[in-house]
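Two quick folds needed for the group meeting slides. Do the first one here.
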Amino acid sequence: MIVYKAFNRDKADYVALGKLLLLFAYLVLNVLNVGEGGTALPLLGIFFVLSSTAVLLSFSQCRTAVHWHLFVFLLFVAWLTYRILVDLNDIAHVKKLTVATTSGILLFFLLGTFARQALDRINATGGVIWLRSLLVVLFLFSAWVFFSFNNRLLSSDEIFYMEGVNGDYQRPGNFMIFLFIMCSFIFLSLVCRLKANKKKNLFVCLLAYFSMAILNLVSSQAMGANTATACILAIYMMSAVLALLYADEDIRDRYWRGMLSFPFSMYLFKRLVRYSLVVAVFSAVATFALVQITSFDLQKTRVFGFGSGVNSSITSRVEIFREEGKGQIGNALFFGNLDVARLTSGDPGRTLHSFVPNIIAELGLIGLSIVAWLLILIAQKIFVFMRSSANEETGFLLASIGLWLFFTLGFLFFYANLAVGKEWSVMWFFLGFAVNVFPSRLPAKTRSG
């Protein structure tokens, strides 16, 4: 009967599932193709065609709304386009920063919201079986990437690095983060649906998620993507802590009885601290055991400077900000200038690798105001999402996911200001993913298992 229900679905459910599989396949193939440029573009094209068609059909049937932060985002894209045309007079650069598959802000924002739309559909009607199936698919993809990268490692024992990367690690590294964000969303959606008395299922989910995190962390270091390593590790830690929190019978009971509110609750805070310690200790012990068993030398990885003890990617960013920050930010404070790096230093490549300062330098206070407005609207939507959820099983799922989105958004914004500029695709993907721009009016139906 359970299997029958899992496959007796509306056609839209299968379309949502098919879109996710297409997206997963596109991202994985591009990760595997590190060092050789982009690939599998038709898969991405089909994903966007199916997603756009689904949105248009929903609009025609009055089953889809639009969140207003979309128009604030489009205002930012319009301002970015205007500045490119004025400062650089380069149509190709407009394409590069809006729809290209490396740093296209518009493309990745829509990619995030279409992915979230499909996952919301699965969450609303697909049930536990489909969530488990997606988690298994992502686990298999992670293993595929891991073993493929392992076969491409340099024969030298001095460093842990792949052949043929050619410095092209940022794009596939960002795609790995996309996959892990969606994996974490699916993992937490599944944990929230598990019955409190099914501890075995929780243990299996946690073990699978920990294994995927390890596989992705090792793979990210194999191609030298420190940003992917940092983001995957942080998202894993947050997700594992929240999974333990959501599986806590007392937390669920208090929520359903209306005695616990997200996100402001001293009781919730105390449990978060407790489970953070549990996850930190478990992860440290498990990692130490794995290192000892495999005799893996962490000093050989890029995050430790391949044995030098100095992370060149961090030091170079700090150096650029120290030498160029004041000059670039003060060059055209109100309007900004996309060509500011060349004007102030003579080198167009010496842009500020810090999200907010980079926006101020290149898009001015006008650009920063639009981005701040967008971030406030999205954070507000997440907050309302948590607070307005009903005290029932479906409400617990929505409030729980909302808390994870809030923490993840906070971390990504923090990291973006440490290491990346305005065009970081992960930030724009998550801003689209955090709040579905085209929410469905389909009533949610939650099934436990």
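Then this one, please, same format:
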Amino acid sequence: MGSEWNPLETTRMLLVVGQLLLISSSLSSSQTVSPNCQETCGVVAVPYPFGIGDGCYLNDRFSIRCNVTDGAASTPKPYLRDSNIEVLNISIDGELRIYTHIGKDCYTEAGAQEQRSSLAYAILSSFPFSNTKNKFTAIGCDTVAVIAGSNGQGFSSGCLSVCTGMDDVTDGACDGIGCCQTTIPEMLLNYNASVGSLKNHTNVWRFNPCSYAFLVEDKSFNFSKEDLKGMKNTVVPSVLDWAVWKETCDEAAKDPASFACKAHSECFDFADIGYRCNCSSGYEGNPYLGCVDINECDDPEKYPCDGICHNIEGSYTCLCPKGYHDDGKEGGDGSRCIVNSKSSHLVTILVGLGVGIIVLLFSAGFLYLGLKKRKLIRLKEQYFKQNGGLLLQQQLHEHDRTTNAAKIFNAEELEVATNHYDDSRIVGRGGYGTVYKGILPNSTIVAIKKSKLVDKNQIEQFINEVIVLSQINHRNVVKLLGCCLETEVPLLVYEFVNNGTLFEHIHNPNKSSKMSWETRLRIASETAGVLSYLHSAASIPIIHRDVKSTNILLDANYTAKVSDFGASRLVPLDQAELSTMVQGTLGYLDPEYLHTSQLTEKSDVYSFGVVLVELLTGKKALSFDRPEEERSLAMYFLSALKEDRLFQIVEELMAHEDNEQVKRVADLAKRCLKLKGEARPTMKEVASELDGIRAMANHPWVNIDLNSEETVHLLGEMTDSIVYAESSNTTNTGYTDSMKNHVMPPVNSGR
């Protein structure tokens, strides 16, 4: 007797056969490379669009060379095209890990250079270094590192790492003490990194004879004290971003023959590199060869089915088993099958039990959220007390209510103002914090500085500075509006200045040509007026301690706004100088302060003198791109004045200006740059003299007596031997600095 025909089984067989035919068709139409291509080189998998040998890669940019470099018995290693860049890993998601070299600079105990391979570099043609997964890193206790390269425009940055002993250093902390790091820009295709020493490692040689600099994958590098004794490796891993160069999805799709996204895949644009491909929903595999259907029935946990599962192209269906019927919902595909009436009582019991469990889970969830909210409130109260909130409230209560005192903001208010600190709101980064653009409920635009570190021992001084700086009512000072103390690190809120920094307007060729001599002279006069006010007119004298062109902001009318008082110090009325740890920016740092650790108002005068020279010459305060004798702008300027070459080094637009005005400003800068502080003028004298020089334009008969003295060599050969590093940072906004607060211990006071 023949078997009974079963329509359900027949339908199932037809679905399976149809699925197999579709998979076969998909594979045959999407395969674009020879199956004979080599898929690995040594232990590294080489997925398409990369490939080894002709016909095995998408285009020349994806060519991989597989070489045996250490003898026939060694494991082969992959390299990018015809370069010597070794490949460590290729991800189909758009990442490529490679080896890059470490720059090295070593010395003998006597300070003689022993070994130097101080230049680490890489040149790429198509795939840029990832700016989110790499960090430029320097290691050493007497180390200056600089990175320069190209990302479609010039780029340079660097960092300084110092320490006096192994006890200063913390494992895992890359904060400028034994180890420092800085970020790189997007689309960086090539770079060179140099590393040098301040004092030839003579003071730290016993535990740190060498300096190192390299570009490294952030998550693969963990700083250790042992690195100071000598790094064992000569290379480190770095990450590249890759995509199909350099069309957009819309442009590439116009030519199906060359379009890289194959069957059952989707295209998306990636940055400025090009486009990438992903498998469509319901498919998996290599989108550049063609994705294949996922058999959802093989993974019931991920793709649930109450009935009998049947895989179809790009999806799946379910048919209810005997004793159940489709509930008619969710498309009637059997994914929701319910029991027939004979089992309804059991179903009722199970449903009741399920509802009880759900209610219990919801109750537990609400209880957990309530406890979590109470814990968050207690944590905010703890931070508020820890950051001196009670002391600040007391100070504000005692202060005259008629003045514009600092406001204490709450954490939620600033979080909403910055759209939860979204990356798109970032307007500047520095070694010690990030600055966000915020919009308060009253539509006031502010700058919110979120620091990385907090010194619990300086809370009282921090509160005092907030109170004092909030009282500064000067049109040329960036106004401190208030702070937030409910977070682990206090947040500072400033007025927002939207026209960039003086540094950008001086050193960007497109902007510098728009700054006339009259505008430059006015900016110098306004800045000098602010410093004179801080030194002489403030209720408690304030030394800024980090005067530089990146800390002078400009508004739409090119009005100067002095910013960043993070390194500033209050000077008691009965003291003329302070003994402090040396902080500041190389190139602007007062050599007398560097030598003696004694901070005075004349330290700001020296730094302002460097800014004057920047305005005159259009050159950076410090640059390794210039010849050695011109690296320090201050020294080069004084040398040019001595040789009567002033008008050979000033900016071209000065040639058409009042030569007498330029000469007088140059002479004033010369007196500000005297090595001995007591020989420099006060900021009040400097401000008065600049006002007089500006008056010369309308009253050329005014004659101002400018003293001229020879520069006193306080530091002698020691000063001349200091090696400086780059002092600028491309992401600096003036609210936070690039190479600020690199701490060096006082020379005479020990650690």
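Slide caption for protein two: Residues 344-386 form the longest helix (43 residues).
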